[in-house]
Predict the 3D structure of the following.
Amino acid sequence: MAQETNGNKKLLAGVQVLDFTQYLAGPSATRLLADLGADVIKIERAPDGDLGRKIHLVEPGISAFFLAASAGKKSVGVEFKNPTGLEIVRELVRQVDVAVENYSPLGLWSGRAVRPSHQLRHHRSGPEWRDVHDR
């Protein structure tokens, strides 16, 4: 969100990231992108949101873990099974530069319901950029 530090433009200023991550690894990665200046929009599955909201509670309903991993991000709750919710996600995917997800291998992109033009995936050999095109 903050695009400058001490008058210097941040490295990822102007990059828009759609964050479909949960638990630790994905949210930590997208937190780093936000720290580097990217505009990160976290998509949470309605009605409960990110499962990380339920761990390391410091007060009833407030997770220190979730707050730390989500700092600097915007957040939207979406019901993926609702056609309107899915259309919201499709429109957001069209508008961003990068989509990051860490769902199961048969997760969000598998049914081609939503297809980003660029996707950062983590493979056993390490992260790689991959163009994903509709056929």
In short: Strands lie at 4-5, 8-9, 16-20, 39-45, 57-59, 62-63, 73-78, 98-101, 118-123, 126-131. The chain is about 25% helix and 30% strand. Residues 83-95 form the longest helix (13 residues). The radius of gyration is 15 Å.
